[in-house]
Amino acid sequence: MLAQLSFPVLSLPRFCSIFKKQPSLPMFLQQSNNMTQREKFNELNELEADRIHDGLENPQDSDWSLTEAMKRINRNRNRYSNVFPWDQTRVKLPVKDTEIHSDYINASRVRLGLHVDDKEIEEQIDDNSIQYIACQGPLPNTTNHFWSMCFNLSVDVLLLQQH
After folding, report:
1. Can you tell me the distance from the alpha carbon of 134 to that of 137, in angstroms, rounded to the nearest whole number?
2. How confident is the model at residue 144 (pLDDT cuts 50, 70, 90)?
3. pLDDT tops 70 at residue 32
4. Does a structural domain hold residue 22?
5. What total number of domains does the chain contain?
6. Does residue 45 belong to any structural domain of this protein?
7. Which domain holds residue 142?
8. 2 inside domain
9. 59, 60, 125, 158: least surrounded by Cβ within 10 Å?
10. Which pTM value belongs to this model?
């Protein structure tokens, strides 16, 4: 049996100057001579920052809002203080009354965009077969939520990645 170790993630207050700095490049990109990789990495970081900013500034109109994840009632359901699902793609738990019980779990629906040149193969691909769920490892207080999600969404395969 594998044991999962968890360490608290500490976040600095928003006013700290560290938030104004460009994130440091991972070691493999620092050592890379390929400028395109670095540019793509920086572009992704910038895009992520823009989306988060838009979601926080315009929660009602933004495709990138994080309203549910940021609610006080749901904060103890997040393993990390800086990883949240977008409202638009989040998985909702089946609850009878959302006024009493939260339907929040830190999990997102992910669709795999396939580009197939062969028309015959493209017709055989079922849209439902290329959908996935990205989810944090469950916490002691969210283990039942995790298995409820798996059961209700008929999850066939679980893949756990730890670092």
Report:
1. 10
2. very high
3. no
4. no
5. 1
6. no
7. 66-152
8. no
9. 60
10. 0.64
pLDDT of 134 above 80: yes
The C-alpha atoms of residue 134 and residue 90 are separated, in whole angstroms, by 9
Three-class HEC string of the chain: CCCCCCCCCCCCCCCCHHHHCCCCCCHHHHCCCCHHHHHHHHHHHHHHHHHHHHHHHCCCCCCCCCHHHHCHHHHHHCCCCCCCCCCCCEEECCCCCCCCCCCEEEEEEEECCCCCCCHHHHHHCCHHHHEEEEECCCCCCCHHHHHHHHHHCCCCCCCCCCC
Tokens representing 98 are 């959302």
Per the CB < 8 A criterion, the answer to whether 29 and 43 are in contact is no
Q: What is the pLDDT of residue 143?
A: 94
Q: What is the pLDDT of residue 95?
A: 85
